[in-house]
Amino acid sequence: MLKLGVLLLVVPAVVLMGIYMYEQSLVEDCLKAGGSFDYIDQICDLSTTQPFISLMARQPLLVNGGMLLSSIGLIICLFRLYVPAPRNPS
Measured in whole angstroms, how far is the alpha carbon of residue 49 from the centre of its chain? Predict the structure, then answer.
């Protein structure tokens, strides 16, 4: 049960960070090229200026679901670490 809790705690956060960092690398490449990044279509627009739209606004289910899974994993870990293991009578 503890392994499940640790997986639920770590994996969603790593996936969210990976998605965010990948998107940020696309944005940085676009800005270096002199363009404006279109967050909706995930393309570099060299002709018009695009507004910033956060990942949370574009993918609320992904972000909230990932945070919910991490919270559940934290609760499982805390419960498993604080509840003593059953003792075998000798």
Answer: 27
Compute CA distances 68 → 19, 60, 64, 75, 86, whole Å: 17, 12, 6, 11, 29
Provide the residue-wise pLDDT of the chain in tens; the chain has 90 residues.
778 889 999 999 999 999 999 999 999 999 999 999 999 999 999 999 999 999 999 999 999 999 999 999 999 999 888 867 677 776
- Residue-range domain boundaries for the chain: 2-82
For residues 2 and 19, give the distance between their C-alpha atoms in angstroms, rounded to a whole number: 26
Torsion 37-39-42-47 (CA) sign: negative
The Cα–Cα gap between 66 and 55 comes to: 13
